[in-house]
Each structure stands twice: as structure tokens, then as C-alpha cells.
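Structure first, sequence second, as always.
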């Protein structure tokens, strides 16, 4: 996916934050210098972009580094009575040298290692904006698009904003249609990696036989039919940015072991190729309870504990029905614009109908139901008659509930009752309650959140 991106305008703020920095091409012509570099070497404005660096800094050594291909790190030199550490690094694309960068530190709190890390990140930005061929590098959603007046969901949004600024792996749990992907996109946009790749892999949408090569990539000649030059996997495509592994609960057990190594070691094994270090922030989504899957032997416990560093549990629509009027108005405005309709709203009976339904498909089902009603009315308010399918579904659901009780529903009700009794018996002591129930305390916490037990 090609994008028209002006690298200089995007990277300028980042470069200035590094302090004393100059970047040159292979002919030692100045590509960029920061304000502090110009001040240090008394170079007048406008800065001489395109001119040879040695014309303004006669004793510079960056040109020699480019010619020799040998970088110099942590070298001391004196200038204008100050002793400084200078680092001269090469900017590369694969095996080709694109230019060089020099940066210095005087009384900075940053260590040389931290500065090297910043330059490593800058090199990845250069590579990204020059090559710019990644799939799914952009996000479609941001946190402000979440429509709610529900206090619990507002607290979750505030927590998400804080968690997004860290490097920690995030596990997003929610039923189908609750907006897990919206949260995942928002996490990337709110992080320090927002200008780097955002790559998505749906673990349930790709056949098991192809999932490994999609995730890790492969080298040329790795197997019959392999592309010439090999192929980058999704993890490598996300290097420097964020990888969203959607429906992680669908990943086969044998592949979970390989993913665990990546999450732990920050290194991938390309199929038929060499190990590569990677810098990726992982976000995972699931519509199933992974703690339960661990108990059933369907998900690795070591991987579960690695990816469940930060957990976000998105409440289903049936638990925040106060948001339904807001969501209905939003979808009406959206569909009016998309379909060229002139729907003014819904009558009160429709809202009562919508709020009495349990919405197993959550927000996605609500949007589909509103769009279906649009096909019956081109203007005015939507009436109950426009929601014939919803009324039929509700009638069938009521009949089913009257005649059957599923094993899953019975088990959930029994679990909830047992937890409430254990907490009452132990006077709210969760550790003792978990021992009484003969389950791990983390599983107790998961079930308390699931059943909204305070």
C-alpha cells in the first residue's frame, strides 16, 4: 500500500529532540542539521542544505566513516572548550549505504546506549518511509470514535490511554462485535509508535498450514513454490511498530510455542533463513476466555501469562444499554450520509424494543439492524414496523429460553453462585475464596470480571 509521506516533515521533530545532529548523503552533502548543531558549530541560517559538510566543519570525520564503511562510537573530542562524545553511524538500506549521521552529547542525561537506540529507531523510520510497502501500515480508528456514556467503559478508555504509552503486551477480551479492533487501532495511535507500521493478522482467517509462513516469513528456496527473494512475515513487517494478532485463541498449539519465543526473546526464526532481532509491540484480541482454554489444554499457560500483561475487557452491549440511544443516533447519521436517506430518528417504541433485546452480536448487530430498517423507510422516523426481523428474533429467543436451558448457561450460573458463596464465606478474602474453590487466584479474578462480581 503506497502512501505519499514527506519524511522530512514527519522526522523533523524527532531529530530536533536528539539535540546535536547532522545527516549527510554518500557525497557528504548536508541533508539535515538540527538547530543545536548549527549553534554548536556557529553555522549561520539558512542552513546550507546540499553543501559539503567539511566546508563548514573542516575537522569533521563523518565523510571518512562513509568512505570506509566503519562506524565510530563513543569517541571523545574537544570543541570550543567543551569535551563531548561523538557517534558517527551509517544509514543503510539492506547492504547499501545511504549516508551517515553524527550526533553528540555533552551534559545530556541520555547514555550513549540510549542515543544509539534512538538512532536505531530513526534508521527504521528512514527504511519505512523510503520503502513504504507494508500491508496494513495505517490505522482506521482512534479512541475518540468510541461512543459511550457508560462510566465503566469510560474508565476503561482512560486506562487504555495510559497503557498505550507503555511497551507492554496488551490482551483485549470481548465478545464478537464489541469493538476490540477499535481499541487495538487506538492503542497504536496513542503510542510512541504511531508513525511506524501497524500490521494486522487474523489468526482465524488463515489456514493452519499457511499461518506460520504468514507470521514468520520465509527465505528464498525455503520450500517448493517459495517466492524469489523470500517474503517478510507479519512480525518483521511490524518491526518498530505494532502487530495486532486478532483472535489469538484460534492459533494452533504448536505455533503458540514459536510465538512465545518471539514475545520473550524479541527474535524471529525466518523459515529457511536466519534469526532476526525485532522490536514489536504486541496487541492480542480474543472472544474466548483464555484462562478457561488454558484449563482445557487448548492454550499454552506460559504464552497466556506472557501476553496477558495488560488486560482490557470490553463490556457487551447488554451491559451498557444506556448507550443504545447514542449509538442509534450515530448510525442514523452515518447511514443517511452513506445511503442518501433522510431518516430523522426513531420513535420511543423503537428505543424500548432495542433496549429490551440482549444483542448477542453487540454493536455490529445493532448497526446491521438499523441499516436493515433503513430499507423499509426512506424518510421520517423509523417505527417498530421497520424492525420486523428484530421482533421475530426476540420471539424466537423467548421461546427458546422457555423451553431449553443450555449446558453452558447452567454452568455459568452455577459458577457465579459458587463464587458468591465462597466470597461470602471468606468475608471477601479472594485468596481464601480461591483456595476454597480449588482454583488459581488469577482464574478467580477472571471469573469475577466476567460475571461482574464486585
Amino acid at each position: 500500500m503506497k502512501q505519499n509521506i514527506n519524511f522530512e516533515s514527519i522526522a523533523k521533530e524527532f531529530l530536533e529532540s536528539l539535540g546535536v545532529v547532522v545527516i549527510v548523503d554518500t557525497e557528504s552533502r548536508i541533508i539535515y542539521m538540527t538547530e543545536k548543531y548549527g549553534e554548536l558549530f556557529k553555522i549561520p541560517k539558512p542552513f546550507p542544505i546540499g553543501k559539503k559538510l567539511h566546508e563548514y566543519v573542516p575537522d569533521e570525520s563523518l565523510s571518512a566513516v562513509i568512505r570506509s564503511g566503519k562506524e565510530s562510537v563513543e569517541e571523545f573530542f574537544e570543541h570550543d572548550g567543551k569535551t563531548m562524545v561523538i557517534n558517527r553511524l551509517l544509514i543503510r538500506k539492506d547492504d547499501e549505504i545511504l549516508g551517515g549521521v553524527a550526533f553528540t552529547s555533552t551534559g545530556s542525561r541520555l547514555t550513549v546506549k540510549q542515543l544509539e537506540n534512538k538512532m536505531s529507531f530513526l534508521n527504521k523510520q528512514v527504511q519505512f518511509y523510503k520503502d513504504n510497502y507494508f500491508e496494513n501500515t495505517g490505522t482506521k480508528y482512534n479512541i475518540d470514535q468510541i461512543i459511550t456514556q457508560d462510566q465503566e467503559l469510560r474508565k476503561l478508555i482512560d486506562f487504555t490511554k495510559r497503557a498505550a504509552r507503555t511497551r507492554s503486551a496488551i490482551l483485549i477480551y470481548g465478545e464478537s462485535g464489541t469493538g476490540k479492533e477499535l481499541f487495538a487501532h487506538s492503542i497504536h495511535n496513542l503510542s510512541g509508535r504511531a508513525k511506524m507500521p501497524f500490521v494486522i493478522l487474523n489468526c482465524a482467517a488463515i489456514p493452519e498450514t499457511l499461518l506460520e509462513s504468514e507470521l514468520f516469513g520465509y527465505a528464498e528456496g525455503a520450500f517448493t513454490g517459495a517466492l524469489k527473494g523470500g517474503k517478510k512475515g507479519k512480525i518483521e513487517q511490524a518491526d518498530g511498530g505494532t502487530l495486532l494478532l486478532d483472535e489469538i485463541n484460534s492459533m494452533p498449539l504448536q505455533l503458540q510455542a514459536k510465538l512465545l519465543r518471539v514475545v520473550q526473546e524479541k527474535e524471529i526464526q525466518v523459515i529457511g533463513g536466519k534469526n532476526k532481532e525485532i522490536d514489536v509491540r504486541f496487541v492480542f484480541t480474543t472472544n474466548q476466555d483464555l484462562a478457561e482454554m488454558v484449563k482445557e489444554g487448548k492454550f499454552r499457560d506460559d504464552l497466556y501469562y506472557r501476553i496477558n500483561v495488560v488486560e482490557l475487557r470490553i463490556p457487551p452491549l447488554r451491559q451498557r444499554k444506556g448507550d443504545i440511544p447514542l449509538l442509534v443516533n450515530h448510525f442514523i447519521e452515518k447511514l443517511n450520509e452513506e445511503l442518501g436517506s433522510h431518516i430523522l430518528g426513531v420513535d420511543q417504541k423503537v428505543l424500548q424494543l432495542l433496549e429490551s433485546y440482549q444483542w448477542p452480536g453487540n454493536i455490529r448487530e445493532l448497526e446491521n439492524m438499523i441499516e436493515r430498517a433503513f430499507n423499509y423507510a426512506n424518510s421520517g422516523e423509523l417505527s417498530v414496523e421497520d424492525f420486523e426481523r428484530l421482533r421475530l428474533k426476540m420471539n424466537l429467543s423467548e421461546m427458546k429460553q422457555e423451553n431449553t436451558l443450555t449446558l453452558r448457561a447452567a454452568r455459568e450460573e452455577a459458577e457465579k453462585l459458587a463464587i458468591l458463596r465462597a466470597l461470602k464465606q471468606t468475608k471477601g478474602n479472594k485468596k481464601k475464596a480461591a483456595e476454597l474453590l480449588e482454583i488459581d487466584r488469577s482464574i478467580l479474578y477472571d471469573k469475577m470480571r466476567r460475571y461482574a462480581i464486585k
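Margin note: The first helix runs from residue 7 to 18.
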